[in-house]
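Q: How do we represent a protein-ligand complex in a form that can be generated token by token?
A: Start from the inputs.
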Amino acid sequence: MLQRTHSAAGVLAAEWVLHAYHVPLLSWDTAGALLLGCFAGPLADIDKPGSVMAKLFFPVSSLLRMLHIHHRTMTHSLLFLVLLATASFPIPALYYSTFLLAYASHPLIDLLNEQGVALFWPVRTKIRLLPKFLAIDTGSRAEDVFCFLLICLCFWLPAREWWIGWMQLAMR
Ligand SMILES: [Zn+2]
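Then emit the structure tokens for the protein with zinc ion bound:
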């Protein structure tokens, strides 16, 4: 999937966490979590040469290349998610949950891609959730539609929250 699709999924994951933590819509925490979600969503593609994340963290992406870690393997695996969860444990709960959920959204939606993900790396078998004819190819029209739906949800969730809050105020 493209970076914009992963960013949209990351923002959606952040919104979910913000809802669970009852964080007010207009707050610095909301802004921080949304930014973190937008950034953590595409982060797993640090293993993809030429991607924005690989360029941004070029020492890490160069190291992955030197170690022959291929795209959609280690950084997209459950094992790496567990390591990341352990390593980022000291950060505050809201940002910790946002980071992990946004990061986890990446391999989750890559499972819809026709190339699949080595979710159980170091086992190299790539897993895909959809049959090939239904799978979403990177950069395809189907991905455009999928990304559009994610962005719609990103707007709908806070709008719904705001509407419910406003209605509760009006009913008092
Ligand atoms: Zn990926």
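The pocket of zinc ion is lined by residues 44-45, 72, 76, 106, 110 (CB under 6 Å). The radius of gyration is 17 Å.
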